Amino acid sequence: MGGERKIALDALQKIEEQESYSNLVLERLPGGLGARERAFVCALVYGVLERRITLDFVLSRYLRRPVEKLDAPVRAILRMGVYQLLYMDSVPPSAAVNESVKLARAAGKTSAGSLINGVLRAFLRDGGELVLPGDPKKAASVRYSAPQWLVSSLMETYGEAAAASFLEHSLVPAPLTVRVNTLKTTPQALIARLRDEGVEAAPARGEESALILKDSGSLLGLPSFREGLFHVQDLSSQLCVRALDVRPGMRVLDACAAPGGKSFTAAQYMENRGELIACDIHEHKVELLRQGAGRLGINILTPRQRDAAVPQEGEAAFERILCDVPCSGLGIMRRKPEIKYKDPAKYRELPDLQYKILETSSHYMGRDSILIYSTCTLRREENEQVVDRFLDGHPGFAPCEREVLGGAWSRTLLTGADYSGDGFFIAAIKRTGTKK
Ligand SMILES: C[S@@+](CC[C@H](N)C(=O)[O-])C[C@H]1O[C@@H](n2cnc3c(N)ncnc32)[C@H](O)[C@@H]1O
Predict the structure, then answer these.
(1) Using CA atoms, how far apart are residues 127 and 33, in angstroms rounded to an integer?
(2) pTM for the structure as a whole
(3) What's the topology of domain 176-232?
(4) 82 CA to middle of ligand 1, Å?
(5) Which run of H or of E encompasses 265?
(6) Is 307 annotated as a binding residue?
(7) Pocket lining: 285 vs ligand 1, CB cutoff 6 Å
(8) Top-level class of domain 4-125
(9) Is 260 annotated among the ligand-binding residues?
(10) What fold does the segment set 235-431 form as a domain?
(11) In the chain, where does the domain assigned CATH 3.40.50.150 lie?
């Protein structure tokens, strides 16, 4: 191996400087990397992102100035070095130190070599292990590499044990879960087909048409994917569509639909009969809806560029409406670790937008219509508080109990030992009164 650490450093710099999503940067790594080298780069980049708070805590014990004040490439090299020492058993400690010094040279930071060497060797001399701070909340923040505001918020909302379990399981790589396209195949037939293509697939617990794929490599390389036999979709999103309870022949609105996973699953439950209007505010994302539906053989989906917060004059009623609103995404931080480091002030305007989308969509509900409000986040402000505000101000609507939500009308799903899906919130609302 040679040069992978420089590729990892460049990727980390790009994610930090341009606020790019890690998955997108890693999808576009330079060509020519072998599978092993690519896996190493991805493990290092994801690992450093995921454990940033833990790594910075270790570094802070060996630096005279605050970690944030370091030159960005030097800081990234130090984080990568500590990550290799703490979490990469395949890298001998001496290699982690020497390669970090070499990397500084390759990055044009030769003068930082002695600092990097000194810090990493001092950590090794102290045993090379993580020593947690005494304060329990600080310790949880360092252990799970989650900002303190997030630790406190999760603990206050879900209790200490559930929050700790969620944070711990958010450090485990997410499985690749897909939804079998029931318009074209069955779970058993798809498992056999994938086996022929060299990919191991097994049924996922809890969803009849969900499979977990192992070592699939790029999906674009699989004929079964190109033929539209499945799409990628986490368990929580599949449950969300089940809660919508769409049936063949219905008129359905997906108000925030792109990239389209939930619309696609809904169309499959509808057996490609009825009408499915799938909207998104961004034109380029609407194109994703068109492409996905085409690949999967869905022809009831009408993609539309539309702002879901702006009422549409003369829209006929829908029997089912999905508001899978934009959110802070904390439930999927195991897939995009950079999410957890965002300044929570950036989320301030989300609840009002989410409320507007819900309120506007409710205009299109007829009697007996059902609306699902969902997010992939775990903040009450974006979940319970939005639907409560809506229900409090709209007496013609009521909570709607669903069997798939355990008999309740809303449910929060937390990734944990017994549940491998993303963190997610689902609430069901029905119309009880007539329109004013
Ligand atoms: C959580 S994602 C939806 C995921 C999608 N339901 C799926 O399963 O693939 C939220 C989407 O809402 C879109 N969006 C954001 N603001 C919107 C608005 N005002 N009106 C409509 N769509 C919006 C975003 O572009 C994004 O694609």
Answers:
(1) 34
(2) 0.93
(3) Alpha-Beta Plaits (3.30.70)
(4) 38
(5) helix 261-269
(6) yes
(7) yes
(8) mainly alpha
(9) yes
(10) Rossmann fold (3.40.50)
(11) 235-431
